[in-house]
Specification:
Largest sheet: 7 strands, mixed
Strand order of the largest sheet: 1-11-9-7-4-5-6
Helix content: 25-40%
Order of helices and strands: EHHEEEHEEEEHEEHEEEEH
Shape: globular
Number of strands: 14
Bound molecules: uracil
Number of helices: 6
CATH class: Alpha Beta
């Protein structure tokens, strides 16, 4: 029997925390921010794939034959919640190059803070896959919940949500709507401001990684 994963995992590894601090600093350039996001996403991917099923294969080392551990051919889908999700996607994909990739396009209405869908394209056979949905910022949780709704409508039953920063409000919203979806994050911040930004946060993740305003 496999243990139920915790609903929230904060990856408190020193390398993750160090890189995150540099990313939070407003003086950090776009180029450095992007590079650190790539590095940190690989460290987070390490955590998120911790419970992938394993099997063994018979191989021959230069010394002798052995049954060596290998991934059990688990089908994976990485789903980027656009546009900031792409910053996390690149690094995770480097680590899991055979994963299928999908995109959910949602933007946040700045008045209502509610998500509006503009794009949806995911791999087939979502019901057979471990689905890792990536979005750097779990803020109000509204767009994350909407994205997970869409993934479940497409058949996904085994979903993990991977983000860089989470707010307590976002975690609570996700837990209420999707208690079956574990969240893995580099930090749980203090709060949200009135515009739905994470405090202390790192600002607008998309703007920071793409150099827009
Ligand atoms: N999206 C961001 O990019 N930053 C926040 O703080 C909240 C939502």
């Amino acid at each position: 029997m496999t243990a139920t994963p915790p609903h929230l995992t904060v990856v408190d590894h020193p390398l993750v925390q160090h890189k995150l601090t540099i990313m939070r600093d407003k003086g950090t350039s776009t180029a450095v921010f992007r590079q650190l996001l790539r590095e940190i996403s690989q460290l987070l991917a390490y955590e998120v794939t911790r419970n992938l099923p394993m099997t063994t294969m018979r191989i021959e080392t230069p010394m002798q034959e052995m049954d060596a551990p290998t991934l059990d051919g688990k089908k994976l889908a990485l789903i980027s919640i656009l546009r900031a999700g792409n910053g996390l996607l690149d690094g995770v994909l480097e680590l899991i190059p055979s994963a299928r990739v999908g995109f959910v396009g949602l933007y946040r209405d700045e008045e209502t803070l509610q998500p509006v869908q503009y794009y949806f394209k995911v791999p087939e056979a979502m019901e057979d896959r471990l689905v890792i949905a990536v979005d750097p910022m779990l803020a109000t949780g509204n767009s994350s919940v909407a994205a997970i709704d869409l993934l479940k409508e497409a058949g996904a039953t085994n979903i993990i949500f991977l983000c860089l920063l989470a707010s307590p409000e976002g975690v609570a919203t996700m837990k209420a709507a999707h208690p079956d979806v574990p969240i893995v994050t580099a930090a749980l911040d203090e709060s949200l401001n009135e515009k739905g930004y994470i405090i202390p946060g790192l600002g607008d993740a998309g703007d920071r990684m793409f150099g827009t305003k």
